[in-house]
Design a protein that fits this description.
73% of the residues lie in helices and 0% in strands. The chain contains 6 helices and no strands. It is globular. It has helices at 2-13, 16-27, 33-60, 68-80, 83-89, 97-114. It has one domain (2-114): Tetracycline Repressor, domain 2, CATH 1.10.357.
Length: 123
């Protein structure tokens, strides 16, 4: 589930149009801070909320321990590394769909190494 979510998230956010909107919001933050706030609350928060929900469900099922918000942030960090900043700066090209899927699988595997399923969870 984490790899699937991560693939979709990186695919959608790395779209050139989305990157252009982020760049515009950053460039205009002093004159129009409401644009950046709207992008954060509407765009970014939706992904963060979904990831927190996934973590909360995994925790409720006994698969993970920890605070869902912190678990979500850890997974997001493993997923993105510095890709988003590199895309915003124009120093990296958008990854291919295959590269995105590999990135998501690697992030999910690394996350599960940090947070192995608890022994009390379902088999």
């Amino acid at each position: 589930m984490l790899a699937s979510f991560g693939t979709k998230l990186v695919r959608e956010v790395s779209d050139p149009t989305v990157i252009a909107v982020f760049r515009l919001a950053i460039a205009e933050v002093v004159q129009s801070p409401e644009v950046a706030r709207a992008l954060d609350s509407i765009g970014r928060e939706a992904g963060r909320a979904t990831l927190r929900k996934i973590m909360a469900e995994a925790q409720a099922s006994g698969l993970l321990t920890g605070r869902p918000a912190e678990l979500a942030e850890q997974f997001a960090g493993l997923l993105w590394h510095d890709l988003l900043v590199s895309l915003l700066l124009g120093v990296a090209e958008r990854p291919t769909l295959r590269e995105i899927a590999g990135r998501a699988r690697h992030a999910a595997a690394a996350f599960l190494q940090l947070h192995p399923p608890s022994n009390d969870g379902p088999a």
